[in-house]
Amino acid sequence: MQDKTLYATLALAVLLALLASGIAPYDHATWLLEVAPVLIAAPVLLLSYRNFPLTRLLYLVIAIHALILILGGAYTYARVPPGFWVQEWFDLSRNPYDKLGHFIQGVTPALLAREILLRRRMLAPGKMLGFLALCVALAFSAFYELIEWWVALMAGQGAEDFLGTQGDPWDTQSDMFMALLGALLSVSWLARIQDRQIARQGLPSPRA
């Protein structure tokens, strides 16, 4: 019952944030592009909950990821207020909020890949499991960069808010580096929490 209460609270928080962000975003097209992963993931998580519920940790990380995306969609990543605060505190040349987004973009896929591989008994905990989780996270990050490129080709100058490069010629590389750091966090420290929760929650493997 505690798990269901937690999951309902997370889902409600994400839903309310999504609705609030869509009332008057900085740019409606950019908002839709940024929150699209949330709109895609939500029904998938809902439909898979009965047969393949995830760990509490992973649901929490996914909710945090969704909130980061939603806030970025509301303001555009280059204009998120907390990012300006960090920029001022550390005397940075750009709003760094998008790097937080790419960091969590490494955390989530790595944890998800790791959990699926473990619970399907494809791999046991160890170096190979961590390596493959890293590979999945970096592949996802690279694919997202391709999506940004395709959007830029189709939208032209209007894609600048979605890309959020802020004039940085190394934006793509630094995005993927942040995703790598997030994935490393997943396969090191967070992996231990994930393993304990899989054991304690007695989570099932997917039905054949």
Explain this structure to me?
The structure is a single chain. Helices cover 75% and strands 0% of the residues. Helix 2 (28-48) packs antiparallel against helix 3 (56-75) and helix 5 crosses helix 8. With 208 residues, the chain is an all-alpha fold. The protein has helices at residues 2-21, 28-48, 56-75, 81-89, 97-119, 127-155, 160-163, 171-201. The chain has one domain (2-201). It contains 8 helices and no strands. Pfam families: DUF2238. Keywords: Membrane, Transmembrane, Transmembrane helix. This is DUF2238 domain-containing protein. The chain crosses the membrane at residues 30-50, 57-80, 100-117, 129-152, 172-191.
Short précis:
It holds the Pfam family DUF2238. With 208 residues, this protein is mainly α. The chain has helices at residues 2-21, 28-48, 56-75, 81-89, 97-119, 127-155, 160-163, 171-201.
Task: Name the features.
single chain, globular, mainly alpha
Give a topology summary.
Blueprint: H1 2-21, H2 28-48, H3 56-75, H4 81-89, H5 97-119, H6 127-155, H7 160-163, H8 171-201
Helix pairs in contact: 1-3, 2-3, 3-5, 5-6, 5-8, 6-8
Beta-strand residue percentage: under 5%
Number of strands: 0
Distance between the termini: 27 Å
Order of helices and strands: HHHHHHHH
Assign the structural class, choosing from mainly alpha, mainly beta, alpha/beta, alpha+beta, or little secondary structure: mainly alpha
Helix content: over 70%
**Principal-axis shape:** globular
Count of DSSP helices?
Answer: 8
- The total number of structural domains is 1
Mean pLDDT: 90
- Model regions low in confidence, pLDDT < 50 over at least 5 residues: none
Oligomer: single chain
